[in-house]
């Protein structure tokens, strides 16, 4: 799959182009992996170590010892030398391959051939284990991202054909057998089964499905064959959207990652200059022998290499984003991780976010007509709308819709609809909206969620609906307090009475009712003042009308993998299921990622400063400096991998 190939290239760049800390590109990676290790590199290192040992134990002249050590260094690290030369021509001068080449060549020139060979051997051993650690993370993310099969079983003219998923068109019928992944988003036509949704939403329990229900590409059919009708092509399926979001991680870097990149570009040439000055000072000022002065400068040069930082920091973000994706929490960038970690205020939309969004008509109260007739007229007026309330009214009516009777339909976001049926104006929406359209409405209104209706500018009555609070909404608010969030608010277009009931039920102290989309944006801007420059505001929503406010927030979180495309595009974080507890889980995950980043930065810099000081005073040898540098880099890489293992939140 092309998308997966692109992702592989992105993680490989952690070693090469931008961070320039590995010579994998120059070795060609021609050896086959053995449990994650490069067999060819292992063989080369084995031969190099044997030659190195022979040069130590066999009594030879200095010339032959030099030849043995040179052969050992070349067998182990010819790719390091080639990498340094290639980087010189590609204007990537100051990277680790150059530092190691300088250290090894200089050691040979001053007569320390054993240390020169040891530099290359230890460096390559470290690279081997770093590649293994990074490769494990890459493979884990690849497994996560390998959500969609390459082919689908299409049913046409009573026959089954296996064709590439990219060739399947909307409306085609496909068969999904037990054990197979759902290749494209589709609706069940025949069959009942159980799906494993864990790769998409992080749900630990399988989900039962039957006719009329939607299947997301990437989920796994567990128990029985299913016949389904395709609703989206491969490139627009849920699995494809997840792939694009995960791959977009490297496009926008967080502040910490940007700092490390700039730091490495400046730091490396500076330490080379310092090493030269150090050698001259020790030789000229302190009158030490030239060989000892150069040796101390080489120790300083080797240990100062920033490889541990420039590999571990982006790897931590990548691993953390991959681990969060496994739970159905998709960070679009490491910049989003940085922002979420600073969250101080969380603002929720109500419908579809804290509630199920599945409305049911609870009562119909007409003024001067039969309730069945009122519901029929309302259903025809709402027939062209995709709003959950409109769908609920149409569902409650349950009868056939005569579309030829509907002359026109206009939807006013956040207010209501105006339809003309047989040239008669029908208005459904809030009391204020009916007043705007010239209808004289009663002063009193019920406390429930209602849709008022007028026919020909005459008030006709109201339809009451109910919306169910999600089971984990109250737990989500409590979890946010545990995650360090200082303030939680709710914005809704519903009445103050409805908003008050829900806020009290879930534990939200502040809410804003009867908000239009533009009102929500204004409220978010007001609430952002509470965070100041040291915090961030998250807005959580799921509808198309939430796209503007998702963009206005510091971080927008789109709730639900089947939420509107506009909301998903506007958000920095996407939660694949409808569980609001995942908001707190995203905050915990982002803080964990940054905690590991800071651990790596402090450990790498602290350890290097100590060993630099030991090298300057002559305590640390060159081979020990290489060993320490490799050890520090490997330790930070292994610590970075911890970011992939994020605890599954309780739903």
Architecture overview:
There is one protein chain. The protein has 651 residues and is of the alpha+beta class. The chain has four domains: 272 residues, no CATH class; 86 residues, Calcium-transporting ATPase, cytoplasmic transduction domain A, CATH 2.70.150; 123 residues, Rossmann fold (3-Layer(aba) Sandwich), CATH 3.40.50.1000; 107 residues, Calcium-transporting ATPase, cytoplasmic domain N, CATH 3.40.1110. The strands form five sheets. Strands 12-24-23-22-13-20-21 form a seven-stranded mixed beta sheet, sandwiched between helices. The two termini are 33 Å apart.
At a glance:
The chain has 651 residues and is α+β, with helices and mostly antiparallel strands. It has 22 helices and 24 strands. It is elongated.
Topology of this structure?
Blueprint: H1 2-12, H2 24-27, E1 33-34, E2 37-38, H3 39-57, H4 62-89, H5 96-109, H6 113-145, E3 151-156, E4 159-164, E5 173-176, E6 186-190, E7 193-196, H7 198-201, E8 207-209, E9 214-215, E10 220-221, E11 226-230, H8 238-247, H9 255-285, H10 290-303, H11 307-326, E12 329-331, H12 334-341, E13 343-349, E14 360-366, H13 371-381, H14 388-397, E15 406-412, E16 416-421, E17 424-429, H15 431-436, E18 449-455, E19 458-466, H16 473-482, E20 487-491, H17 496-506, E21 510-512, H18 517-531, E22 536-541, H19 547-552, E23 555-559, H20 565-570, E24 573-575, H21 581-616, H22 622-641
Parallel strand pairs: 13-20, 13-22, 20-21, 22-23, 23-24
Antiparallel strand pairs: 1-2, 3-4, 3-5, 5-11, 6-9, 6-11, 7-8, 7-10, 12-24, 14-19, 15-16, 16-17, 17-18, 18-19
Helix pairs in contact: 1-8, 3-4, 3-6, 4-5, 4-6, 5-6, 5-10, 6-11, 6-22, 9-10, 9-11, 10-21, 10-22, 11-21, 11-22, 12-21, 13-14, 16-21, 21-22
């Amino acid at each position: 799959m092309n998308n997966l190939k692109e992702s592989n290239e992105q993680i490989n760049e952690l070693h090469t182009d931008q961070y320039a800390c590995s010579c994998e590109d120059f070795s060609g990676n021609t050896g086959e992996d053995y449990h994650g290790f490069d067999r060819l590199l292992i063989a080369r290192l084995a031969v190099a170590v044997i030659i190195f040992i022979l040069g130590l134990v066999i009594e030879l002249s200095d010339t032959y010892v030099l030849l043995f050590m040179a052969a050992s260094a070349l067998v182990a690290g010819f790719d390091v030398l080639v990498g340094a030369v290639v980087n010189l021509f590609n204007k990537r001068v100051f990277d680790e391959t150059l530092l190691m080449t300088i250290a090894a060549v200089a050691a040979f020139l001053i007569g320390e051939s054993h240390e020169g060979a040891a530099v290359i051997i230890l460096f390559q051993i470290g690279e081997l284990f770093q590649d293994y650690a990074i490769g494990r993370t890459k493979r884990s993310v690849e497994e996560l991202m390998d959500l969609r099969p390459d082919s689908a079983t299409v049913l046409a003219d009573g026959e089954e054909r296996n064709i590439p998923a990219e060739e399947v068109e909307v409306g085609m019928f496909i068969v999904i057998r037990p054990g197979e992944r759902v290749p494209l988003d589709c609706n069940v036509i025949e069959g009942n089964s159980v799906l494993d949704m864990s790769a998409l939403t992080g749900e630990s329990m399988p989900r039962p499905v039957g006719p009329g229900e939607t299947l997301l590409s990437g989920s796994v059919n567990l128990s029985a064959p299913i016949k389904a009708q395709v609703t989206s092509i491969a490139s627009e399926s849920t699995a494809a959207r997840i792939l694009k979001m995960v791959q977009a991680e490297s496009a926008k870097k967080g502040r910490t990652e940007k700092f490390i990149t700039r730091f490495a570009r400046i730091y490396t040439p500076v330490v080379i200059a310092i090493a030269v000055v150090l050698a001259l000072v020790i030789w000229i000022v302190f009158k030490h022998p030239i060989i000892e002065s150069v040796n101390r400068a080489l120790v300083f040069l080797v240990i100062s290499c920033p490889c541990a930082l420039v590999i571990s920091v982006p790897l931590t973000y990548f691993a953390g984003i991959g681990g969060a994706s496994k739970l159905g929490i998709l960070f679009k960038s490491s910049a989003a991780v940085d922002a979420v970690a600073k969250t101080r205020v969380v603002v929720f939309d109500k419908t579809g976010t804290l509630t199920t969004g599945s409305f049911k008509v609870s009562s119909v109260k007409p003024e001067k007509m039969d309730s069945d007739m009122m519901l029929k007229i309302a259903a025809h007026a709402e027939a062209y709308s995709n709003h959950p309330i409109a769908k609920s009214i149409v569902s409650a009516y349950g009868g056939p819709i005569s579309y030829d009777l509907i002359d026109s339909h206009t939807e006013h976001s956040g207010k209501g609809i105006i339809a003309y049926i047989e040239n008669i104006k029908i208005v459904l929406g809030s009391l204020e909206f009916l007043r705007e359209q010239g209808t004289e409405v009663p002063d009193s209104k019920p406390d429930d969620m209602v849709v008022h209706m007028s026919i020909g500018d005459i008030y006709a009555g109201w339809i009451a609906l109910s919306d169910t609070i999600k089971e984990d909404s109250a737990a989500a608010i409590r979890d946010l307090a545990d995650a360090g969030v200082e303030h939680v608010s709710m914005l809704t277009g519903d009445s103050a009475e409805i908003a008050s009931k829900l806020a009290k039920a879930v534990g939200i102290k502040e809410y804003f009712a009867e908000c239009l989309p533009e009102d929500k944006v204004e409220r978010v801007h007001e609430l952002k003042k509470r965070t100041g420059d040291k915090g961030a505001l998250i807005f959580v929503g799921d509808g198309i009308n939430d796209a503007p406010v998702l963009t206005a927030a510091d971080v927008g979180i789109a709730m639900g993998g089947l939420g509107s495309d506009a909301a998903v595009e506007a958000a920095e974080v996407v939660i694949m299921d409808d569980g609001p507890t995942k908001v707190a889980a995203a905050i915990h995950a982002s803080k964990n990622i940054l905690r590991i980043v800071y651990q790596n930065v402090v450990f790498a810099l602290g350890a290097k400063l100590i060993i630099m000081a030991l090298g300057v005073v002559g305590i640390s040898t060159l081979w020990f400096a290489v060993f320490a540098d490799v050890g520090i880099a490997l330790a930070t890489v292994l610590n970075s991998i911890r970011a992939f293992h994020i605890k599954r939140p309780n739903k």
